[in-house]
Amino acid sequence: MRRGSFAADVGCDHGKLAAALAQRGICPRVLASDLRPGPLTGARALVERLGLGDRVQLALADGLCGAPPELVDDVIIAGLGAEETARIILGAPWLKHPDKRLVLVPASRHGLLRELLAREGYEILKEIPVQEAGQLYTVMSARYCARPRELTSRERELGLIDPSLPEGRSYWLRVLGRCRRIEAGLLQAAREDPELLRRQRELARYIEGELEEHGN
Ligand SMILES: C[S@@+](CC[C@H](N)C(=O)[O-])C[C@H]1O[C@@H](n2cnc3c(N)ncnc32)[C@H](O)[C@@H]1O
Q1: Closest-lying ligand 1 atom to the alpha carbon of residue 13
Q2: Cα torsion for 113, 119, 190, 81, to the nearest 10°?
Q3: pTM of the shown model
Q4: Smallest CA separation from ligand 1 atom 27, residue
């Protein structure tokens, strides 16, 4: 999140992130929302216990419905699947402004989300791979650049993940493993979609070459 920005934490669940952003002075105001009343009750209890009621506003909402665009600079959507994350972004066309920022931590299908962002004219500015409890995540920051485009297979699957970082290497290896599995599964179907098989092979070769070059 950009220091000093007004933030919206969509799908805030327990509210810990929203509370931390406000408590640490990173964001002077945070709008924390969730689709379900249960999590919101928990988040409200946390916010009140920490005395953050003047800085964290809670809302029961689907995505960014009802969020005032003029009071939100940075939107974080963490822990939701790629399709739901994309649906929330598409449901708020006011995000298509270069001053707004997205901070996304998709729970699944990172490639799909990268593809949808690019098609809608968003550019990914940075991606940080994170390994936590045996899971690999990517934290993406993105903004609208008004240049919709299609991604190559490499861009879709690897994003801006740096393979020279230990977590980045793990990420690339995971993509390589998936390419191999797809390759294996596609052997039968290859006659029907030889182009798909060719792309997977090309991506696998590229990953192997790059990882070797990075000395991993
Ligand atoms: C897995 S939790 C993630 C919690 C938190 N963001 C984190 O990363 O720790 C997903 C939360 O998003 C909420 N959620 C799912 N779809 C949503 C939507 N369309 N709008 C708002 N909240 C949503 C769920 O109710 C749930 O509390």
Answers
A1: 27
A2: 20
A3: 0.94
A4: 13
